[in-house]
Write a structure and sequence with these properties.
Number of strands: 5
Mean pLDDT: 84
Order of helices and strands: EEEHEE
Distance between the termini: 33 Å
Bound molecules: zinc ion
Strand content: 15-25%
Low-confidence stretches: none
């Protein structure tokens, strides 16, 4: 199904990047720039399109992964975790090579 080439993320339609999942099976993704709605599709290919809301009181596993102060969003429908896009984050200065 999906073609795992890095070039795929540079297509015109912004795509979230799958980063893995939590121990309870919750998916973790990185938002595409300007992305406002969940782009996950269910088994039938139907788009979730739930709103991504800022998620403040996340659990210990996410805190350990990303820090207690992390900027984290969550789909209000399927509860998938979304991290901010790297392009939108003010902290993504190019300092580490
Ligand atoms: Zn969703």
């Amino acid at each position: 199904m999906a073609n795992p080439t890095p070039e795929a993320v540079e297509r015109e339609i912004p795509q979230a990047i799958d980063l893995g999942e939590l121990s309870d099976g919750t998916k973790i993704r990185r938002r595409a720039p300007r992305m406002r709605a969940c782009s996950l599709k269910d088994a039938k290919g139907k788009l979730c399109a739930g709103h991504l809301k800022r998620y403040y009181f996340f659990g210990e596993e996410l805190q350990q992964k990303f820090g207690a102060e992390a900027e984290i969003y969550r789909c209000e429908k399927c509860k998938t975790i979304y991290l901010p896009s790297e392009e939108e984050s003010p902290r993504s200065q190019i300092l580490s090579f």
